[in-house]
Amino acid sequence: MFKKSEGRRNALFVVTMVLMTIYLLWRLLFTLPVHDGPLNMACGILLLIAETVTVTTTFELLIQKMRLGKSSLELPDILPEDYPDIDVLIATHDEDVALLRKTVNACTFMDYPDKRKVHIFLCDDGNRPEMASLATDFGIGYLGLADNTHAKSGNYNNALAHTTSPLVATFDADMIPRHTFLMRTVPYFLLSRYEREGAMWQRRETPETDPAQRIGLVQTPQSFYNPDLFQFNLYAEGDIPNEQDFFSREINVMRNTSNAIAYTGSNTVILRQALDDIGGFPYETITEDFETSVRIQQEGYVTYATSEVQAAGLSVTTIDGLIGQRVRWGRGIIHSLQNTHAIVSSKLPLKARVTYLNSFLYWWSFFNRLVFILAPILFALFGFRIVNAGLMPIIIVWLPSYFFYSIAMRFLSSDIRNQRWSQVVDTILMPYLIVPVFLETIHVHARKFRVTRKDAGTTTTRLRACALAIPTLALFVLSSVALASFVWGKYGMALLQSSIIIFWISYNAIALLYALFFMLGRPVHRSSARIAADEYVIVHGRSGDHEARTADMSDAGLALLSEEPLYVPDDRQVSLTISTSRYEADMTASLVYVHPRGDKWLYAFSVTPESEQDGRQYLQIVYDRPHSLPERMNLWDTAWDDIVRNVRRRLARERTRQRKSPRISIDRTVTFADGTSCTLVDFNYHFLAVKGLDGDGHSGDAYVYVMGTGTKLSLRVVGPAPSRPGLTLLKVENLTDLEESGLINVVADDFANRIMSEEA
Prior knowledge:
Helices cover 42% and strands 19% of the residues. The two termini are 59 Å apart. By secondary structure, it is an alpha+beta fold. It is built from 22 helices and 24 strands. The strands form 5 sheets. A 7-stranded mixed β-sheet has the order 3-2-1-4-9-8-10, sandwiched between helices.
């Protein structure tokens, strides 16, 4: 079934490439405005070049996807004694101790047959005492480096000079590995010593000596446990994957076919011999990771990217941080391609050089996006004739190619990305990358390295966001004016003849509207990311222990779901025990709020560990798991859905939850010990809300309600219920006694039993 599906996908790709080739030839031979003046001709050629670059770079991805199965490597099952020593290097520059603590902690929990072979080092490019103390607390190595002029490369090279293991794993400060990381990466480096015989892996009698079989680097995806800015600012964290997933889990994996995968700086294992062969991490670049992988490939090593997420970190949380990060990537990659001459290097096969040519051209896609936005505006608003073609030839040649191209893009990305979202991302980033990419291309280099800040909870100021939105707003206004002026006065066939231009202006305007929504941002209410998790919890209280399940967790808090309402005091802390198949932690918890969720009750707590060991276990409970953000797109989500959702969420009033007791509906008639009757509307353990009380009761009046089990509730009238006309509040005076006697959490059931007996 899979092969049949794969065959249909490949056929779709071939048809797409044929149709797009026909389209580009038609554009070249028949549509350039050769008789409409040099300015029109120049614009026409520019648009054709932008289309050609966009389409041909996609061709390479389609071909790589078709050949992907032939380049996949199996993870061998190797003997425990064959696992080599490995140095785990955690790079830090100026990040907070709290951020590093999570990464260091996770590294100490990584599985390995002999943990004595795993040597963890905190590589501190700052020589900070607090980092040395952190390393001591966890019993790992510390390699401090002051006044480093070579940034991350210098930091890692210093670490290489003080370590000796044959394998080296690298992690950024915020990247938290899962316990399986080493077991899912290290065996690849033993492929030359093992061979598969049926279902079993056996040692080779003679290890493979072909240099082309040497594994030099294994890269796992860059993944993130908090929503990235595209997900967060556009209220799409439930509908689209992280923007970088498309590269990490698709593009980079497809590059296995040309042995041109990119080392992304973290979540990676590298052969030390490969690093020695290239002279260590390179200095003359601001993307030392990317250049390292190119140089390793030039030495004849195999570099391999997996699609299996084995670590997750923090995505950038400010627009300035995102722009700075992408500018650094763009300039750094272009500079590294110039340093290594990868596009023309005889040390690389042709298919790898083509991949690196496309890596260069990708950064020009932002200029292409500007061309695509301006072209229909120039025609509609200023009368530029950029494409010399009528409606019928466009429908016959362009429409089928565009239709198949859109479908092919969906199959190319395995539903991680579609054409619409690719253009939205490019439109958002486009104004800030064109100039840096151009400058780097003409060898005007940016040499200063700046670490991307990843402080969860931070945001871009409204004034700064408005300033950044000016180019996008200008293009949106231009598009709107062009569309309005172009359709004005047209009807019937004239409107039909103009449909292609109307479509493209509208299509671009929608992407620009997304970009404006993105720049508007969104309020940040939490200082740490919540991760959905369903784990077993015991709530310890004076009235006994109660079982529940977690709904989500973060560093400092968690929410749990209970089938039944629980009494949790809001004036003192309670204890929780959270356990998984691997970890268990005792936590001290303070109730934040309670609210119903479906037929269950959700309790939100702030938590602190009861001991250092509990803290370490709790961090693993939170982070040693797949993140809970989407891995595939919501295929039913349209542009209209996105826009409506953004408008509604931005206009809706933010509601804060403050209730700290469950309000349980009853709506039954009850009779007190003195014969007084009333209707019990609801209660929240502290108070009963009633109606129909004789004379509405007087403040201070006391009543006793004897429940079905004989339990007595001592009640006192407080007065009218605030904001609830016609209801009177009765306070439960003996709440503490009920709690200490273990009866408080059966009050709701007792009411239910009483009601049942009365109805019977």
